[in-house]
């Protein structure tokens, strides 16, 4: 489904608009995608979206937290608590295994404290670590790197 008008509103109130892209939602944290269709409605705590414009031969990705979207026949409005970020396929393969292992280790350390009861700082840190792990895992799997803009 090609969306004529795409509007993304970020936490800081910044808006970005672009046209004529297909949008896909990552499925099961793998290189597996579900295309958004007209009249779609959704809400996710964290998600990876892929945007593709065949005419411009442009494809990019964005990681979003606390995101909701509403689509109609030609338009989609996306709202998120994330900051603006864009990723594209990397020219060289980047191995993120060291970073993934370090994040996993920190997550295990905090998780081991759960038996004794977490303090609020640990809950927040665990949430941030899980999000960082998800981003790092997907960057490694898809071989993508952060870029300044989507064009």
Q: What labels describe this entry?
A:
alpha+beta; 2 domains; eight-stranded mixed sheet; 151 residues; two-stranded antiparallel sheet; ATP Synthase, domain 1
3D structure, described in words:
Keywords: Plasmid. The chain is an alpha+beta fold and 151 residues long. The chain has two domains: 2-89, ATP Synthase, domain 1 (Sandwich); 97-141. The protein is built from two helices and ten strands; from the N terminus they run βββββββββααβ. It has helices spanning 97-112, 120-142; strands at residues 2-3, 5-9, 15-18, 21-26, 33-35, 41-53, 58-71, 75-80, 86-89, 144-147. The model has no long low-confidence stretch (mean pLDDT 93).
How do the helices and strands line up, and which of them pair or pack?
Elements: E1 2-3, E2 5-9, E3 15-18, E4 21-26, E5 33-35, E6 41-53, E7 58-71, E8 75-80, E9 86-89, H1 97-112, H2 120-142, E10 144-147
Parallel strand pairs: 2-8
Antiparallel strand pairs: 1-4, 2-3, 4-5, 4-6, 6-7, 7-8, 9-10
